[in-house]
């Protein structure tokens, strides 16, 4: 039986280099052109940091950043709590009537187009406003509710995968020794799934901070988020100021992603050591 030819090692590096170039070369050019002194992003006129100083003078931009960070942070926290509850129901509560329907409703926002989700939420908020008077108007609250809605689905999937991989023998041993289910959850289960919680938080924070379609449907006057501000600015022509802002975002996201990766890797390594120690005890 003939075997498939093995790709030589240097070809692997070439393919890897092409892939990373395709992904990260546009970001590299964006960072370089953020230091362009020209007002035209396509014309290089020398090195300058004036566009970074221009960012600090734009009060409208500061307000948009504040709104986006506030919505993203609070939406991610609530999404982690709701996603954790949904994951526990799906994985640990056993079979129950309507389980398939519940699982479908949790995962539906993952495959639903943003346009459909945004339009549905807009119609919901309008109907609720006419029926019970809440929300009275669209703004930061409606954007936050919309972000919690679709972020919860992503967090639930991440935590569910982690719960299914867990070794339940440790929890069962703690229950056999007399620990209450609540104590087992807070002292054993929660620390073991902490990397998944951090990953879910980072994912929800990023999705919320990045969203522009759904936010555009459910926003109102005076509730412009950072992606909406960038989108409206780009329609009038790309400014080097946008490049400077994107470069700062790349730097912050890169640092935050590295810290989150380090914490998750450290926790996973500690969990693996604890598991090995418990098996040999």
Automatic annotation (TrEMBL):
Name assigned to this protein: Putrescine transport system permease protein
Domain of life: Bacteria
Matching CDD domains: TM_PBP2 (cd06261)
Key word ATP-binding present: no
Keywords: Cell inner membrane, Cell membrane, Membrane, Transmembrane, Transmembrane helix, Transport
Domain (ABC transmembrane type-1): residue spans on this chain: 65-260
InterPro entries for this protein: Bact_Polyamine_Transport (IPR051789), MetI-like (IPR000515), MetI-like_sf (IPR035906)
GO-annotated biological processes: transmembrane transport
Source species: Thorsellia anophelis DSM 18579
UniProt xrefs under NCBIfam families: PRK10592.1
Gene3D superfamilies per record: MetI-like
Family: Belongs to the binding-protein-dependent transport system permease family. CysTW subfamily.
GO CC annotations, alphabetized: plasma membrane
Database matches in Pfam families: BPD_transp_1 (PF00528)
UniProt subcellular location: Cell inner membrane; Cell membrane
Membrane topology according to the record: Multi-pass membrane protein
Transmembrane residue ranges: 12-35, 69-91, 103-129, 141-163, 184-206, 244-264
């Amino acid at each position: 039986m003939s075997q498939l030819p093995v790709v030589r090692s240097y070809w692997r590096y070439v393919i890897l280099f092409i892939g990373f170039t395709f992904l990260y070369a546009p970001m590299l050019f964006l960072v370089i052109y953020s230091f362009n002194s020209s007002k035209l992003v396509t014309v290089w006129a020398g090195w300058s940091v004036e566009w970074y100083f221009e960012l600090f003078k734009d009060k409208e931009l500061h307000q948009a950043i504040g709104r986006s960070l506030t919505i993203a942070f609070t939406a991610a926290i609530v999404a982690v709590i709701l996603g954790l509850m949904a994951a526990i129901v799906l994985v640990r509560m056993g079979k129950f009537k309507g389980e398939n329907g519940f699982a479908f409703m949790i995962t539906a926002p993952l495959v639903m187009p943003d346009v459909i989700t945004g339009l549905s939420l807009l119609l919901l908020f309008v109907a609720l406003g006419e029926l019970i008077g809440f929300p009275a108007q669209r703004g930061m609250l409606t954007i936050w509710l919309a972000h919690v809605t679709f972020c919860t689905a992503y967090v639930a999937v991440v935590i569910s995968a982690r719960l299914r991989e867990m070794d339940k023998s440790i929890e069962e041993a703690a229950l056999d020794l007399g620990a209450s289910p609540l104590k087992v959850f807070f002292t054993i289960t929660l620390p073991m799934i902490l990397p998944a919680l951090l990953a879910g938080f980072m994912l929800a924070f990023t999705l919320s901070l990045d969203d522009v379609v759904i936010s555009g449907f459910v926003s109102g006057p005076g509730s412009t988020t950072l992606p909406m501000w960038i989108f409206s600015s780009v329609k009038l022509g790309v400014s080097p100021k946008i490049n400077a802002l994107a470069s700062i975002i790349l730097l912050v996201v890169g640092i935050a992603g590295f810290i989150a990766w380090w914490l998750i890797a450290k926790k996973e390594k500690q969990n693996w050591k604890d598991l090995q120690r418990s098996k040999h005890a």
